[in-house]
Amino acid sequence: MLLALFILLSFQLLGEGTVQLFHLFIPGPVLGMVYFFLALLLWKPMKGHVESLTQFITTHLSLFYIPAGVGLIEYFDLFGKYGVGMVLTIIFSTTITIVATALIFHWVLKCSGKGESHD
Q1: Can you give the chain as a three-state secondary structure string?
Q2: What pTM did the predictor assign?
Q3: Using CA atoms, how far apart are residues 47 and 37, in angstroms rounded to an integer?
């Protein structure tokens, strides 16, 4: 599991280093995730090295919400001012995301021929 953690953190560091070196607008961890994805595609054995850690992280994903909850309590007064706008924005953006995802999924199924009915 330590090797897997080292691999994941190395890709995050690689992403951060690339962003700092080339002054990119994308966050370093996101670029590191892209590098990691490409590495998984190009080198199949890497999946076996990181699978146990990713399952552990996914199992304990709720722990990552604790800092967000602390942030909510810390800035609770801002929710009094901007809460309605924030809630409306979240509802609107979530609706757009779900609709866009459904449309793209439908389009991909149609293009791949798997959405055809075989009656």
Answers
A1: CHHHHHHHHHHHHHHHHHHHHHCCCCCHHHHHHHHHHHHHHHCCCHHHHHHHHHHHHHHCHHHHHHHHHHHHHHCHHHHHHHHHHHHHHHHHHHHHHHHHHHHHHHHHHHHHCCCCCCC
A2: 0.56
A3: 10
Helix axes 28-42, 2-22, angle to 10 degrees: 120
31-45 per-position pLDDT tens digit: 999 999 999 999 988
Q: What is the largest CA-CA distance in the chain?
A: 59
Q: Give tens-digit pLDDT for 58-70.
A: 888 888 778 877 8
89 and 40 within one domain:
no
Same domain, 75 and 115: yes
Give the Cα separation of 15 and 34 in Å (integer).
8
Q: How many CA atoms lie within 13 A of 34 on its CB side?
A: 9
The total number of structural domains that make up the chain: 2
